[in-house]
Write a structure and sequence with these properties.
The chain is an all-alpha fold. The protein has a domain at 345-385. Helix content is 51%, strand content 0%. The chain is built from 23 helices and no strands. It has helices at residues 2-5, 8-30, 50-56, 59-64, 66-71, 76-90, 126-130, 141-144, 152-162, 168-180, 187-193, 206-209, 214-219, 230-243, 249-256, 265-273, 280-284, 288-292, 296-303, 319-324, 328-333, 351-359, 368-384. It is elongated and about 95 Å long. Bound molecules: 2-acetamido-2-deoxy-beta-D-glucopyranose (NAG) (3 copies). Residues 274-275 line the site of one 2-acetamido-2-deoxy-beta-D-glucopyranose (NAG). Membrane-anchored forms may play a role in cellular adhesion.
């Protein structure tokens, strides 16, 4: 009650005073004292207070003297200020006075020395990236995704400074930019990469994945594989199989499970020989192509005691398509109540092998293909009429 009846102008006066104080603080924060403008990156800057660095440092100067930045043991806080200054140049926002802040009376265009003002709206230029060194630990994956990285030496030097620093996302972004630009990684680079969390796997081309160390597979988590294509998964599955050779049974299955998206029909058949039963959750992740060629008996063996779990997946891929290709009689034998198979007495047409065989020149003129098609059409016609 008392608050509500208080005279309103008191509140606005307070806001006004608050605003002036804020303006004063902002101006104090921004103005570089005369003679303190940074002309060169040297040890003197180490003794600057943070607000002074903020006010007296120029991003364009930093961009040209990155080697010096890395030579001097600046503090974490100072380096963060440098990063911000550099970003102002990179994003082209340094020219904007005060970025929406109130204008300070005695403050002009900013503390700019004799350096030509450059802007890098496309991201850091190669000349800067080459000399980033430890400053790489302060850039974000978003920064890196704008870069053009064409030098393997640069990649290697940045990998070196990143080791043990927990910048796996930055490393993945760097590799993505380099490989995306057509860059090749040599064995030394791949060996160094093997010391990072493999968040970079899905940016490597299949042939590059082939050269990845087996130890990497032991560190790989399902998240690392989220963006991989089926081609990449196929390479990784085969590497994983080799990598996990020294474990068996349920441990083997736990290890290989994240890679199942790369398994072929033959790989799945091999599971049934090894008495490895996959569960319905894992079945869901199998490539449709690999599942479609399995017989009912093979699927039964593949799931073993987990077969009952399949019922819940009947409407989902890859099971839905697989069911539609099986004879209903075979499906009935599973005792799961799966429906949607081919009714008894109808031909099960394997469209894939028919397409494949009609595509091969040596099969031209062979009888069964066209005859099968005709039979199927006749059956369809008789069903419809
Ligand atoms: C990267 O390369 C592209 C295409 O060549 C170019 O348009 C872009 O400006 C380059 N970016 C940088 C930061 O050099
Ligand atoms: C199998 O090999 C990997 C890497 O070579 C090792 O980390 C793991 O402990 C080994 N496991 C067994 C059961 O030998
Ligand atoms: C698979 O299981 C069957 C039946 O339990 C057994 O006879 C066979 O030896 C097992 N095969 C392997 C490779 O463990």
């Amino acid at each position: 009650m008392a608050l509500q009846t208080a005279p309103p102008h008191l509140g606005s006066q307070r806001t006004l005073a608050h605003g002036s104080l804020l303006l004063l603080l902002l101006c104090l924060e921004k103005a570089c004292p005369p003679g303190r403008e940074a002309q060169v990156v040297d040890e003197n800057l180490f003794f600057y207070e943070e607000w002074e660095l903020e006010a007296c440092m120029d991003g364009a100067l930093l961009a040209t003297q990155m080697r010096q930045v890395n030579r001097i043991p600046f503090t974490y806080q100072q380096l963060h200020i440098f990063k911000r200054k550099l970003d102002e140049v990179v994003q082209g926002s340094a020219r904007l006075p005060q970025r929406g802040r109130p204008r300070c009376p005695s403050h002009g265009g900013g503390p700019h020395g004799p350096f030509p003002r450059k802007f890098y709206p496309q991201g850091y230029p190669q000349s800067l990236i080459e000399h980033l060194s430890y400053f790489f630990l302060y850039v974000t994956p978003e920064d890196i995704h704008k870069w053009n990285v064409t030098s393997l030496d640069t990649v290697k030097s940045l990998l070196k400074v990143s080791q043990g620093r927990g910048v796996d996302a930055q490393v993945a972004a760097l590799i993505a930019r380099y490989v995306g630009g057509g860059g090749e990684l040599d064995k030394a680079a791949l060996d160094t990469l093997a010391t990072f969390r493999p968040a970079y796997l899905c940016v490597l081309r299949p042939e590059q994945l082939g050269s990845v160390q087996l130890s990497v597979l032991w560190m790989t988590t399902p998240q690392d594989l989220g963006a991989c294509s089926s081609l990449q998964m196929a390479v990784l599955y085969h590497k994983a199989r080799t990598a996990f050779q020294n474990v068996s049974g349920s441990e083997y299955f736990t290890r290989i499970e994240p890679f199942l998206g790369g398994a072929s029909t033959e790989d799945l058949r091999a599971f049934t020989w090894q008495n490895i039963s996959i569960d319905a959750a894992a079945f869901k992740k199998l490539p449709t192509e690999a599942v479609l060629s399995l017989t009912v008996a093979e699927v039964q063996k593949l799931l073993g005691p987990n077969l009952v779990g399949l019922k819940a997946e009947a409407g989902n891929m890859p099971l839905r398509d697989w069911i539609s290709r099986q004879s209903q009689e075979d499906l009935d034998r599973l005792g799961l109540g799966l429906v949607g198979g081919v009714p008894n007495g109808y031909l099960v047409l394997d469209l894939h092998s028919r397409e494949a065989s009609s595509g091969g020149p040596h099969c031209l003129g062979r009888g069964p293909g066209p005859v099968l098609t005709v039979t199927a059409s006749l059956l369809l016609v008789s069903v419809l009429s």
